[in-house]
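User: We ran a pulldown and think these components assemble together. Before we commit to crystallization trials, I'd like a predicted model of the whole complex to look at. Sequences follow.
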Amino acid sequence: MKYLVLGSVALAAVSFFASCDKMDPNSPGVEYMPDMYRSPSYETNAITTFRGDTVSCNRLPVAGTIARGFMPYTLPNDTMGYRMSGITMHNPLPNTPEIVEQGKIIYGKFCVHCHGKSGQGDGKVGLILGGMPHYDDAAHKDLPEGKMFHSITYGKNLMGSHASQLSVDDRWKVIRYVQTLQGKKETASVTDSTAAAKPAVKMLKGKKAPK
Ligand code: HEC
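Assistant: Here's a predicted model for the assembly, 211 residues in total across the polymer chains.
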């Protein structure tokens, strides 16, 4: 009986002292098999100093990583790169009615609002911005397709880069269509997907074009 009482007191004392760590009020004390309820892996958005910074996830890909199927465009975005593109780059897609048709659809979505249906620079946004080229003016009617690719990829002055919107193939497809507009006054039927934006364009027209 005496041992039983002593044993119970000892057990109670041990559980009492083990249950809370006086040094740290947040410490849960002695934990029984903590791995069962505390995962050793990092929690999402937790702080860790493991890699020398404090980020546990949402990390950037390793430098030089490229997406599957994506070939980086290697010519630099400068005058020399532009010249080289005109000499070395050629459309890998055949000049077939199907490709031109697909290019036309892309043109109707991404280009027509600036460049206009017939490539005269008379798209609704183009008229507001001003400074649009004509695909068939002296400077553009013989523009090499490589230079087009370069400008669509990097952007040129008022034209932004379309590299994030159009895959490499899509850029070449739309170039096939742009070529049909070089030296042509009219092409009838490209669908202007910006027609729905008429009211907004009206509103913008009152404002001065950004420089
Ligand atoms: C925001 C209006 C805008 C959009 C959208 C736009 N462009 Fe342009 N684009 C311009 C302007 C402005 C220039 C003239 C740039 C310069 O030479 O200063 C230009 C130039 C060009 C040129 C001549 C490039 C060169 O090297 O001289 C081509 C080709 C072209 N655009 C094709 C396209 C295609 C294809 C699309 C759609 C994928 C497109 N653009 C979308 C405004 C636009």
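Residues 110-111, 114-115, 125, 131-133, 140, 143, 147-148, 151-152, 156-159, 162, 174, 178 surround heme C (CB under 6 Å). That may be worth checking against your pulldown data before setting up trials.

User: Thanks, that helps.
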